[in-house]
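> forwarded from #structure-qc
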């Protein structure tokens, strides 16, 4: 068998299996790519929330990165939870030589589905100024985009409409990302509340991707899954627009198939195509 496209995922572990590294692995497999991993933090979490977070030492992150890249290589990189300012700077230094050589998808993870913080307050500025400019595609939801732009501008930002999503995507590109995909799951359109619309921009061209909202509370892992789906497409040679379009279709089906697991918010179904 030929070598499959490889996505190097740099992110935290989710003990509940619905998000983080676990979601990244399942997404890449579902879409025909191979995911190698650099774990940045171990979390204790379940359907009810996050009970603990333990960032890994930078030496462990560097060793994982070099072990994978020096032998297996990577056709795309996906960055998720980094957690601390120290880890943000460590990952920035690791990725800098890959800028322009390998597609990099940045999912600026700031909080869990339950609102539990997954990024230290002093790390936000480093993420906005150090990691964002490395992105081939940045994939924030609207609360994450608000935090990034607030950090960059020094003032509060509100994204409450499709027009504001487009402006935010343009602003993130102006801040250094090649493309920005501002997701609309947290931003219902008052004119069309039955749909969720994501806005993709490279600063001049704009594309929208809409899907019907599923009637489910089981949406754990949506952000990780979408970003890894985009990275898988880029690793397979798709252009950004095509990779985002396929990723939107995949996450839409996964959300519709979300299932109960535990007493709280269950995960999306990464294997929905085979059920």
């Amino acid at each position: 068998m030929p070598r499959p496209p490889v996505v190097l995922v740099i992110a935290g572990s989710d003990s509940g299996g619905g998000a983080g590294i676990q979601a990244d692995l399942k997404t890449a497999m579902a879409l025909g790519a191979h995911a190698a991993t650099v774990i940045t933090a171990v979390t204790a979490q379940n359907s009810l929330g996050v009970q603990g977070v333990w960032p890994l030492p930078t030496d462990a992150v560097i060793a994982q990165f070099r072990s994978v890249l020096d032998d297996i290589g990577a056709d795309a990189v996906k960055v998720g939870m980094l957690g601390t300012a120290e880890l943000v700077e460590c990952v920035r230094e690791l990725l800098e030589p890959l800028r322009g050589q390998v597609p990099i998808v940045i999912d600026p993870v700031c909080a869990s589905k339950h609102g539990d913080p997954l990024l230290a307050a002093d790390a936000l500025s480093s993420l906005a100024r150090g990691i964002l400019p490395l992105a081939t595609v940045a994939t924030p939801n609207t609360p994450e985009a608000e935090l990034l732009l607030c950090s960059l501008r020094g003032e509060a930002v509100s994204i409450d409409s499709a027009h504001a999503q487009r402006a935010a995507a343009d602003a993130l590109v102006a801040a250094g990302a090649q493309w920005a995909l501002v997701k609309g799951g947290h931003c219902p359109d008052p004119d069309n509340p039955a749909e969720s619309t994501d806005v993709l921009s490279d600063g001049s061209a704009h594309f929208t991707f809409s899907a019907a909202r599923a009637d489910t509370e089981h949406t754990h892992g949506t952000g990780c899954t979408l970003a890894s789906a985009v990275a898988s497409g880029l690793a397979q040679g798709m252009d950004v627009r095509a990779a985002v379009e396929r990723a939107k279709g995949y996450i839409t089906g996964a959300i519709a198939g979300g299932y109960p697991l535990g007493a709280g918010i269950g995960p999306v179904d990464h294997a929905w195509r085979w059920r």
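QC bot note: The chain has a mean pLDDT of 95. The beta strands are 6-14, 34-46, 49-55, 76-79, 104-106, 137-138, 179-182, 195-201, 206-212.
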